Amino acid sequence: MADKRGRGAEQGKAGPKTPAGKPSEATSIFGLPLGGLVLGSAGAGAKGKKSGASGPRARLVVVGVGLTDGERSVETLSLLTKAGVDLDGWQRERFLKKRGEVFSLLGREGPVWVLAPVARPNGGHHGLLELSPYTLLRDLAGAVAGPALENAVSELSVSFLRASDDEILGTLVGLELGFYRFRTLRPGIVAGQARPSLVLDGASMPQLAAAQHLASATNLARHLVNLPPADLDPARYAAAAKDLFAGSTTMTVEIWDPKRVEKEGMGLLHGVGKGAAEGPRLVHMRYRPKGKTRSKQPLAFVGKGITFDTGGLDIKDAGSMRLMKKDMGGSASVLGLAYWAEQSELDVDCDFYLALAENAVDRHAFHPGDILRARNGQTVEIDNTDAEGRLVLADAFDVAISQKGKDAPAVLFDLATLTGAMRVGLGTRLAGMFATDDKLADALLRAGQLRGDPMWRMPLWTDYAVGLKSVVADVANSGPGRFGGAITAALFLARFVGQVPWVHIDMYGWAEGPGIGGLGEPGGNGQCVQALARFLETYKDG
């Protein structure tokens, strides 16, 4: 939870809403410090804090993508000379002659890194898989963060050489993502590593704030996924979301406990979660920016929050169950996005929903062959208890689209670690996206490309809906075969969205090994937070 551990006082009826105040002031959540990059005393021309470490001072030079090799070499060496960085002759010669993107040099006071990304061919696909300047710098800067930690660098001076706003943002986000280490935040595992403070030359305070908000939101999603499942049951998760926004004027949080879930007729969410020690929760976070003339309806985001998935009575084998703490990755990204929106003072009304449950094996667990009634009245025959994510989403959808008047959503989005079939088709880093609106789909694809958080559009081909037929209910929750499983899951969800334009994102939410973009260790990757933040930044402009 934010600033403390424990369950919180949300039992009983709908949980209390956060009081009015300023933007949320939580400083940590489940041991993760919030707030992001720390400035040194000269950072961005403002007063700041030193890290307190006594290690070497390092320098990072970030070169804009548009510079030629000759411009890069001459201007970088000139910048280093003016900054008082003394390089041996052989290092200068090596830098002038060698081509590449990352240069590791050694100054008198400590390491010197030069990042000089090169634009790469897009390989077609209308440029939607091209690495943007933001992505190139984010990934290179993230790779530098690890050595900075390992060398106990106390202060990192960052200079930008003809870098664009997006390149500056990508660099700062990459550093913050790269500094995150889950193992150092867990008591009793390993002593925490001191992070270097930053001194920025060429970046403004608004640029730093934007990077802090985006990187902290992404790390928040990563951290929630990384937590052991015993630490993040539905009750603790819901209470932490409420605490995260305590004191905010723009975000109110309401929690429906198991009794309220059942009273609301959410037979699918209740059915999935009733076998666990902590029953299901629905969390509704309502974001309404102050001083805005409301000309558009809000956007609704729903996250699948299965805090652990055994598969239920259709139990998974040990290998398949091993990483099922990540089955709440969609909800983690929704919560991270909500945090970004509130901290960034986004000028778009949004509603964020977390559908939380643990799919446990117990005498109260739902069975194959059960018939559950959804909140919208449809009956669902349970073909497989391991197809539970679509069930909790379906009931949360109905809550979202049932909002009335000025709170009725203009668009419904959902994020879910839903199907293995999508991973077979697109792998672990590319999210699958289904959409009922072409303009929305195109905007999301472009936002994902610009922020190095890619997704790919998949077909809502209704011919496959025949696999969901039931002779005893309106629909079955899964079909008889494995082929097209991501599409049939999306078609099941489509039955619960009404007439609202809808986007469904089937994501993985996990990095299998030390990866790129600042993912320095295996674990949660905060998938889709950066893409959706970019989409929301441009949404108000159409």
CA gyration radius, whole angstroms: 24 Å
What is the CA–CA distance across the termini?
A: 36 Å
Order of the strands making up the biggest sheet? 8-9-11-10-14-18-15-16
What class, by secondary structure content?
A: alpha/beta
Mind summarizing the main beta sheet? 8 strands, mixed
The averaged pLDDT comes out at: 89
Question: Percent helix among the residues?
Answer: 25-40%
Give start-end ranges of low-pLDDT stretches: 3-21, 45-53
Proportion in β-strands: 15-25%
Morphology call: elongated
Number of helices: 16
Total beta strand runs: 20
Task: Explain how this protein is built.
- With 542 residues, this protein is an alpha/beta fold.
- Helix content is 33%, strand content 18%.
- It contains 16 helices and 20 strands.
- The chain has helices at residues 69-82, 89-97, 133-150, 165-179, 182-185, 205-226, 234-244, 258-263, 267-273, 318-321, 329-343, 389-401, 420-426, 438-450, 485-494, 529-539; strands at residues 28-29, 32-33, 57-63, 102-106, 111-115, 155-161, 197-201, 251-256, 281-287, 299-309, 350-359, 371-373, 379-381, 411-416, 431-435, 455-457, 475-476, 502-506, 510-511, 523-524.
- The protein has an eight-stranded mixed sheet with strand order 8-9-11-10-14-18-15-16, with helices on both faces. A five-stranded mixed sheet has the order 4-5-3-6-7. A three-stranded mixed sheet has the order 12-13-17.
- Helix 14 links the parallel strand 15 and strand 16.
- It is elongated, with a radius of gyration of 24 Å.
- The model is unreliable at 3-21 and 45-53 (pLDDT under 50).
